[in-house]
TrEMBL record:
The keyword Iron does not apply. It comes from Cryobacterium zhongshanensis. Belongs to the bacterial sugar transferase family. It is a multi-pass membrane protein. Its main location: membrane. One of its GO terms (molecular function) is phosphotransferase activity, for other substituted phosphate groups. This is Sugar transferase.
């Protein structure tokens, strides 16, 4: 074989290795970034606190004559901090790209290191400058979190194009494989790219319906299928036709450290904090906490709503005034639009909005409902080009400024900042029984429906997101949704 051919083969192998080991290269980028961030923060704080000239650490007791410069302390702190971030798994592939676990691990490792430094300083009577430590750790944590967020945006862009993702081979019944393939295709940023499927029954061939995902037959062809599509992850979507012994054999056949086995239980739309795995008698039992709709968390949510809505009303009062003036000068009629909506426990309340339509909008609604049904939402009325919307109303809707008066609803207690969309009574009359679970919490100005497509969502997706929120909400989750809402409003995604 010629040198050129050999070189070509080596290049191909290296390229293949790189595609399979994207986790390693990405983790290396995180290590380099963490080190640069910590050097910048720790030495920056040292220079700001002590000046350019390196100061010495003061010792008490028997070590009083010991001389160690703060530069050496800074180097040791950077090394230990970098190691701690690795030990606690903040760069592990399981936490990359989605969720809050990566940030929790960064915060946890930083907090533990801070405690360790304090304990060592006490035991060895090291008189560390309090300002140096108190500034370095919080600032370092903030900049580390920011750098991880920036890398996450970079990773998300690449995952949207099919790169830096686990190449997944699905194994299970035809129905479960199709369902999971659809779910994963909706969330490319989660990092799971479905490249093939094996159906244990062997009854399916060709491709999964409405996809380009090839089906390779039964489990006897699993290894050949993994090689054909270069899969590095096997996801078992159902175990009806896979006894425990067969799953164990499947895990043994995977290459350690390079190929991974994931079991997807038949649990959908359940938040991570409610799921706990507990091994019992060699069985990994999954405990699912039932959702709670009362207690201290709801008291905290009400307090949060009251304080934040009050602050926002004060801060946004000039914008509220200007919007009201623009509506009054541009079209005849009231500035505010008041409408009965259904809230918590099915109770009606009067919701406030800036008027964005002509004054006889309700009388024109009947003629438009049939047209709206053809746009994919037979329950909730939404039209992309609603002729009733005024020019100023179109601008207000584009940036969700028409929703701002609902801050008064939140302050009064009939709504929340985050929650399901508040429906009309005529929409509730068409609800199926399970959809009524939306009324277990207060409706919100924004919610998962707002940050997941807004008016572009189908009715089924709107219900799914609302019910997911109802059963899995948290204060932390509300903060994330509020942040994502601000981004969606600025970008005016899906608003009309």
């Amino acid at each position: 074989m010629s040198k050129r051919a050999a070189a070509s083969g080596v290049s191909h192998d290296i390229a293949l290795l790189d595609r399979r080991d994207w986790r390693v290269s990405y983790a290396a980028r995180l290590v380099a970034t963490d080190v640069l961030v910590l050097i910048w923060v720790v030495f920056g704080v040292q220079i700001a606190w002590f000046g350019i000239t390196a100061a010495d650490v003061e010792f008490r007791g028997s070590l009083e004559d010991t001389a160690i410069s703060y530069s050496a302390i800074s180097v040791a702190l950077i090394v230990c901090w970098t190691i701690a971030l690795g030990i606690y798994g903040s760069r592990g592939y399981r936490v990359l790209g989605t969720g809050w676990q990566e940030y929790r691990l960064v915060a946890g490792s930083t907090t533990r290191l801070f405690g360790l430094v304090a304990m060592v300083a006490y035991l060895f009577q090291i008189d560390l400058a309090r300002g140096y430590i108190i500034i370095a750790f919080p600032l370092g944590l903030a900049v580390l979190a920011l750098s991880r967020w920036m890398w996450r945006q970079w990773l998300g862009v690449h995952r949207m194009n099919g790169r830096y993702s686990s190449r997944v081979l699905l194994v299970g019944s035809e129905a479960s494989v199709e369902h999971l393939a659809r779910q994963l295709s909706r969330q490319p940023k989660a990092g799971y790219l479905v490249v093939g499927a094996c159906i244990p029954s062997g009854l399916v061939a060709g491709h999964l319906p409405d996809t380009e995902v090839p089906v390779f037959g039964n489990l006897d062809k699993l290894q050949a299928a993994m090689s054909a599509v270069r899969a590095d992850t096997v996801v078992i979507t159902s175990s009806d036709e896979l006894p425990p012994e067969r799953i164990r054999e499947l895990s043994w056949s995977l290459e350690p450290g390079r190929q991974h086995l994931v079991v997807a239980p038949s649990l959908t739309d359940i938040g991570g904090p409610r799921i706990h795995t507990r091994p019992v008698a060699g069985l990994p039992l999954i405990h699912v906490e039932t959702p709670r709709f009362e207690g201290r968390n709801f008291f905290a949510k009400r307090a949060f709503d009251t304080v934040i809505s009050g602050i926002l009303i004060l801060l946004l009062s000039p914008l509220l005034f200007l919007s009201a003036v623009a509506i009054r000068l541009s079209t005849p009629g009231d500035v505010l639009f008041r409408q009965q909506r259904v809230g918590i426990n099915g109770r009606s309340f009067r919701m406030l909005k800036f008027r964005s339509m002509v004054t006889d909008a309700e009388t024109l609604l009947a003629d438009l409902r049939d047209e709206a049904r053809t746009e994919g939402n037979a329950v909730m009325f939404k039209m992309k080009d609603d002729p009733r919307v005024t020019p100023i109303g179109k601008f207000l809707r584009r940036y969700s400024l028409d929703e701002l008066p609902q801050l008064f609803n939140v302050f009064a207690g009939s709504m929340s900042l985050v929650g399901p969309r508040p429906p009309l009574q005529r929409e509730v009359d068409d609800y199926e029984s399970h959809v009524h679970r939306r009324f277990l919490v207060k409706p919100g100005i924004t919610g998962l429906w707002q940050v997941s497509g807004r008016s572009n969502l189908s009715w089924e997706d709107t219900v799914r997101l609302d019910l997911y929120y109802v059963e899995n909400w948290s204060i932390t989750g509300d903060l994330v949704i509020l942040w994502q809402t601000a981004r969606a409003v600025v970008a005016s995604d899906g608003a009309y």
